[in-house]
C-alpha cells in the first residue's frame, strides 16, 4: 500500500488560516532515517529557513529527527498550509536528489498562546526521549525562538 488513502484522509476538512500557529509533523518514506545524515538534516533546516525568509511561515520551533520533522510555525499570509508543507518536502527531496517523504502530514492548529512554550519544549525534547542524546545541547538539529 502506498499510503495515499491515509494521506487523503489527513487532508479532509483541513482549513488554512493565515497567521495561525500550527504544529506540523511529517515522516520520511518507510520511516527511513534519512536525517541521520548531517548534510541531509542541514538541507531540511535550510529549507525551513528559506520558508521563513520568503514569509511563507515563521518558524517558532523545530526538531529534525532521523525519520521525521516536528515544526511549530506561524503560517504566512499568502500560501495555504498544504502548499507550504508540500514545498518544504519538495525542495528537501530535490536538494537530496531522491524522494524523501511519506505522502501527507499531520497538523494541529493551536488555540491558546500559553500552549506554545510547552509544545516547543516537547518538540525540543524529542531527541532525549528517543535516546539519541543525553543532553539536549548535544543534538544539533533543533531550534526554538525562545532559546
Distance between the termini: 41 Å
Please state roughly what percent of the residues sit in beta strands, choosing from under 5%, 5-15%, 15-25%, 25-35%, 35-45% or over 45%.
15-25%
Low-confidence stretches: none
Share of residues in helices: 25-40%
Q: Give the integer mean of the pLDDT values.
A: 90
How would you write the strand order of the largest sheet?
Answer: 4-1-3-2-5
Gyration radius, in Å: 15 Å
Task: Count every beta strand, where a strand is a DSSP E run of 2 or more residues.
Answer: 5
Helices, by number, come to 5
Largest sheet: 5 strands, antiparallel
Identify the overall geometry.
globular
- Secondary-structure element series: HEHEEHEHHE
Class from secondary-structure proportions: alpha+beta
Quick summary:
With 147 residues, the protein is an alpha+beta fold. The protein is built from five helices and five strands.
Amino acid at each position: 500500500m502506498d499510503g495515499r488513502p491515509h494521506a487523503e484522509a489527513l487532508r479532509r476538512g483541513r482549513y488554512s488560516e493565515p497567521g495561525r500557529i500550527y504544529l506540523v509533523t511529517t515522516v520520511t518514506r518507510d520511516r527511513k532515517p534519512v536525517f541521520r545524515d548531517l548534510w541531509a538534516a542541514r538541507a531540511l533546516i535550510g529549507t525551513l529557513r528559506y520558508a521563513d525568509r520568503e514569509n511563507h511561515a515563521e518558524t517558532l520551533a523545530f526538531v529534525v529527527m532521523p525519520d521525521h520533522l516536528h515544526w511549530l510555525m506561524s503560517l504566512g499570509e499568502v500560501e495555504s498550509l498544504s502548499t507550504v508543507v508540500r514545498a518544504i518536502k519538495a525542495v528537501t527531496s530535490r536538494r537530496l536528489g531522491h524522494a524523501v517523504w511519506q505522502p501527507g502530514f499531520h497538523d494541529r492548529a493551536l488555540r491558546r498562546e500559553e500552549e506554545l512554550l510547552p509544545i516547543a519544549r516537547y518538540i525540543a525534547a524529542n531527541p532525549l526521549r528517543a535516546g539519541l542524546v543525553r543532553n539536549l545541547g548535544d543534538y544539533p538539529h533543533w531550534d526554538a525562538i525562545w532559546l
